């Protein structure tokens, strides 16, 4: 190989006999009018294709290869290497993964590569990144999906020229696929068209993980996302919307949608346009303290990721974080509160999740807080349920093992703590105690009167007899 060959990252290469081919050095491409960077990248691809490359995926974002008709022979060589690499002839495992990134792929390139890919066996993952897809590219991907029913993961990123027609073709192929469970579809600009966004979402309802990061999904597209979440698709457990443009106007709809969803495990809206106030409101999705019924109706399965990168974390690190959760002590910022709810919703037994949240709502999050946060919680509690409520007030959730083990087994228990009597005293002093005694008195009176009425035999009603008084005197 020429000593002047450009530096190349470690890429997948065939182990079979090297095929003789002609690389083209950068000066030639510069003579055709390409700048130094593109000329270097074009030269790199020709060296790569001619020396056994089978999965072109340079990690450096600057290594983008534009298309030129003189690359077609190298595309053919590249396709032959792929075909040889997929054969199991005893020299190694056949490839189940195909990745082509950072190189322009017009129709001429797909016409060469697609037939080879269709002949592969057991293909499980495909990755097309930053290829400048036109409609022909999406049609080719749909054809590959239709042929390979074994594909379980697809990355299709940085293809911003997707049209409504292309989205329809791709969505149909994804929707009808029996094994495709994970889709990374970031940086494609699908949020710029509500029609395209709806079409793509229609094709991913059966998946487990959907990544829509950095897709220009803004406040206008927010209702579409909220409706998708509210549909509560049974398979979908991870929805990543990081780096989009959702704002505070979308928060109420997202909160309502999450309360209706019982299947999502992770919902990520980090680095959107949601303000601190909006992020605090988002927490209502997993811990709504408007009332005890609202606490119970919150989402108890989803870990909500809202706070952007670089936000202040819990002082003292993970050890302090674990101790604060275990002792119920207060937090200095909303970030820690968000982290608490992530850990709580990760617990396996949802009855304990709800119990923890109810107790936290009743008793507050601060260790030395002597009274419930909102006595108004108790206004709508039936009086006959008050003994149970008072019992809850005098206990707090105790986590007996490190926080990172919460999701693995039953860990939550309750215990009476030193402030219990103060809490109960405050409640009985300030709440509806007259009504409570009235309820007890009236109940006992009613029970006594009903018992007496049941034991006393009925008498026949007799009419009153008129007393005949002395004339001129009133009857006594």
Give structural notes:
- The protein has 476 residues and is an alpha/beta fold.
- The chain is 40% helix and 9% strand.
- The protein is built from 17 helices and twelve strands.
- It has helices at 26-31, 36-50, 72-85, 107-118, 135-147, 164-175, 194-202, 222-230, 251-259, 276-282, 292-296, 317-327, 334-345, 350-363, 386-393, 420-430, 433-455; strands at residues 12-13, 53-55, 97-101, 125-129, 153-157, 182-184, 209-211, 238-240, 266-268, 303-305, 395-399, 412-416.
- It is elongated, with a radius of gyration of 35 Å.
- Residues 1-20, 313-333, 366-373, 397-421 and 435-447 have low confidence and may be disordered.
Entry keywords:
476 residues; alpha/beta; 8-stranded parallel beta sheet; two-stranded antiparallel sheet; 17 helices; 12 strands; 9% strand; disordered N terminus
Determine the number of helices (DSSP H or I, runs of at least 4 residues).
Answer: 17
Specify Rg, calculated over alpha carbons: 35 Å
Order of helices and strands: EHHEHEHEHEHEHEHEHEHHEHHHHEEHH
The strand count comes to: 12
Structural class from helices and strands? alpha/beta
Largest sheet: 8 strands, parallel
Helix % is: 25-40%
């Amino acid at each position: 190989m020429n000593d002047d060959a450009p530096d190349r990252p470690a890429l997948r290469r065939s182990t079979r006999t090297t095929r003789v081919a002609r690389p083209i050095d950068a000066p030639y491409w510069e003579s055709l009018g390409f700048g130094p960077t593109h000329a270097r990248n074009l030269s790199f691809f020709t060296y790569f294709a001619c020396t056994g490359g089978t999965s072109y995926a340079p990690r450096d974002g600057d290594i983008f290869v534009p298309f030129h008709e003189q690359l077609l022979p190298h595309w053919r060589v590249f396709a032959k290497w792929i075909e040889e690499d997929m054969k199991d002839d005893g020299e190694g495992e056949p490839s189940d993964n195909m990745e082509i990134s950072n190189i322009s792929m017009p129709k001429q390139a797909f016409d060469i590569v697609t037939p080879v890919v269709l002949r592969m066996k057991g293909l499980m993952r495909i990755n097309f990144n930053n290829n400048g897809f036109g409609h022909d590219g999406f049609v080719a991907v749909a054809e590959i999906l239709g042929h390979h029913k074994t594909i379980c993961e697809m990355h299709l990123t940085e293809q911003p020229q997707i049209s409504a027609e292309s989205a329809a073709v791709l969505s149909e192929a994804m929707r009808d696929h029996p094994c495709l469970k994970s889709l990374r579809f970031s940086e494609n600009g699908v949020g710029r068209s509500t029609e395209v966004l709806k079409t793509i979402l229609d094709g991913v309802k059966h998946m487990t993980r959907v990544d829509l990061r950095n897709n220009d999904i803004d406040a206008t597209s927010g209702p579409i996302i909220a409706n998708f979440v509210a549909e509560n698709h049974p398979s979908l457990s991870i929805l990543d919307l990081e780096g989009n443009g959702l704002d505070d106007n979308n928060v109420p709809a997202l909160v309502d949608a999450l309360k209706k969803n019982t299947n999502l495990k992770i919902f990520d809206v980090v680095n959107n346009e949601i303000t601190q106030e909006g992020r605090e409101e988002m927490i209502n999705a997993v811990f709504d303290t408007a009332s005890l019924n609202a606490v119970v109706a919150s989402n108890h399965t989803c870990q909500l990721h809202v706070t952007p990168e670089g936000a202040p974390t819990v002082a003292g690190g993970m050890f302090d974080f674990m101790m604060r959760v275990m002792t119920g002590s207060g937090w200095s910022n909303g970030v820690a509160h968000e982290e608490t709810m992530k850990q709580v919703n990760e617990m396996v037994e949802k009855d304990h999740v709800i119990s923890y949240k109810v107790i936290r709502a009743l008793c507050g999050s601060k260790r030395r807080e002597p009274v419930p946060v909102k006595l108004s919680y108790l206004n709508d509690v039936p009086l006959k349920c008050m003994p149970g409520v008072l019992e809850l007030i005098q206990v707090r959730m105790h986590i007996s093992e490190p926080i990172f083990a919460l999701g693995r087994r039953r860990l939550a228990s309750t215990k009476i703590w030193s402030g219990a009597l103060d809490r109960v005293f405050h409640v009985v002093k300030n709440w509806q105690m007259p009504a409570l005694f009235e309820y007890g008195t009236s109940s006992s009176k009613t029970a006594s009167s009903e018992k007496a009425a049941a034991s006393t035999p009925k008498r026949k009603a007799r009419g009153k007899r008129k007393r005949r008084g002395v004339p001129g005197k009133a009857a006594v």
